[in-house]
Amino acid sequence: MVRRGAIRNNPTKGRKQIRKVTYKYFIDCAIPAEDGIFDLDHFEKYIADNYKVVKGAHKGDLGKKVRLFKKSENLHVHTDVKVSRRYLKYLTKKYLHRQELGEWLRVVSAPGRQKGYTLKYFNIGQEEQPAAAEETAEETTA
Side by side, which strands form the sheet with 23-28? Predict the structure, then answer.
């Protein structure tokens, strides 16, 4: 005899399914890698060794929560734990300064895409032009 409204053994009914969220970030290293001054393999190893998943964790203990991989001239970071995108920029700048590339390369937000950064050269030629213009202005007044 089956009653109306009897409870059935349906484990999914009435429970919310937890959706697994993956945060995806990237660093575009194409410009310096093409010139041969940037080693993407060494950079990937540096990020893997120095990345902290959560505050207070040990460096390099990525576990299954963080995955690093290269795709063409980009380094992709996929994580299941919410991590600041700015932390990836911090590690990139730290790497550039240790490799003595911080004077020539800068880390800028990727145009048109929110989840990544691009490595670009400083515009050294544009900084020298105003200084040269000041010198010519002083010569004409003297």
Answer: 66-71, 74-79, 23-28, 116-121, 105-109
* Model confidence, pTM: 0.70
The residues of the chain scoring below 70 in pLDDT are 1-14, 124-142
Residue in 7, 13, 30, 59 with CA at minimum distance from that of residue 119: 30
DSSP designation for 29: -
Return d(Cα 128, Cα 132) in angstroms, integer: 6
Alpha-carbon distance of 27 to 89, in angstroms, equals: 9
Q: Residue 113 corresponds to which tokens in the numbers above?
A: 């895409």
Reference 113, options 28, 19, 9, 18; nearest CA is 28
